[in-house]
Specification:
Number of helices: 6
GO molecular function: GTP binding; magnesium ion binding; uracil phosphoribosyltransferase activity
Shape: globular
Number of strands: 13
EC number: 2.4.2.9
Strand content: 25-35%
Enzyme class: transferase
Helix content: 25-40%
CATH class: Alpha Beta
Bound molecules: 1-O-pyrophosphono-5-O-phosphono-alpha-D-ribofuranose, uracil
Distance between the termini: 38 Å
CATH topology: Rossmann fold
CATH architecture: 3-Layer(aba) Sandwich
Catalytic activity: UMP + diphosphate = 5-phospho-alpha-D-ribose 1-diphosphate + uracil
Keywords: Allosteric enzyme, Glycosyltransferase, GTP-binding, Magnesium, Nucleotide-binding, Transferase
Length: 209
């Protein structure tokens, strides 16, 4: 079974409160999502392998550590996942970025795929799929399916807010995928929105409605 990590760092929790607040406007919402994505990227990269290199400081020769050439891929689920990409790339600028376009049919709540574009060396990369919301889990499961179908072997899923239903759906369909979240909320409402959640992530990020 995949592991579920809740990032309870005070800075993440503080910023998430303002992301949730309905009085937070688009500009600030976007900036906060970007900042939280950076903080989460710091935590999610904790297990990256290191190797030693030799350098010279102004004082002496030294053996020091660098990240061991890991090939990473960041995959936002369109649209709202886009809001998390730049924040992650600030810390891991060499990562390649793929895109998976899905929208949730408002009646059935089932995901509809409309776009997939991935780095060419899918089998060799470690992927982080990002989306602010894990609600029913339909979109996350479909995005992981889409990546695996094209040969991906190593996948993590990172979101801001998850509902228990979404976590269970990913765990059941993809027990090899670890889930990283900033908050695990109470439940879904009758329209499939996370309670208390933050509302519609895509609309709040892009100012649409
Ligand atoms: C939202 C969100 C997730 C999905 C989560 O996207 O960004 O992708 O819903 O819901 P689920 O877990 O029940 O599948 P939405 O479908 O609203 O598309 P958008 O980002 O284009 O607005
Ligand atoms: N998608 C969102 O944007 N918000 C939710 O609460 C659920 C799905």
């Amino acid at each position: 079974m995949g592991k579920v990590y809740v990032f309870d760092h005070p800075l993440i929790q503080h910023k998430l409160t303002y992301i949730r607040d309905k009085n937070t406007g688009t500009k600030e919402f976007r900036e906060l999502v970007d900042e939280v994505a950076t903080l989460m990227a710091f935590e999610i990269t904790r297990d990256l392998p290191l190797e030693e290199v030799e350098i010279e400081t102004p004082v002496s020769k030294a053996r020091a550590k660098v990240i061991a050439g890991k090939k990473l891929g960041v995959i936002p689920i369109l649209r709202a996942g886009i809001g998390m990409v730049d924040g992650i790339l600030k810390l891991i600028p060499a990562a390649k970025v793929g895109h998976i376009g899905l929208y949730r049919d408002p009646q059935t709540l089932k995901p509809v795929e409309y776009y997939v574009k991935l780095p060419s060396d899918v089998e060799e990369r470690d992927f982080i799929i990002v989306d602010p919301m894990l609600a029913t889990g339909g979109s996350a499961v479909a995005a992981i399916d889409a990546l695996k179908k094209r040969g991906a072997k190593s996948i993590k899923f990172m979101c801001l807010i998850a509902a228990p239903e979404g976590v269970e759906a990913v765990e059941t369909a993809h027990p090899d995928v670890d889930i990283y979240i900033a908050a695990l909320d109470e439940r879904l409402n009758d329209h499939g929105y996370i309670v208390p959640g933050l509302g519609d992530a895509g609309d709040r990020l892009f100012g649409t409605k």
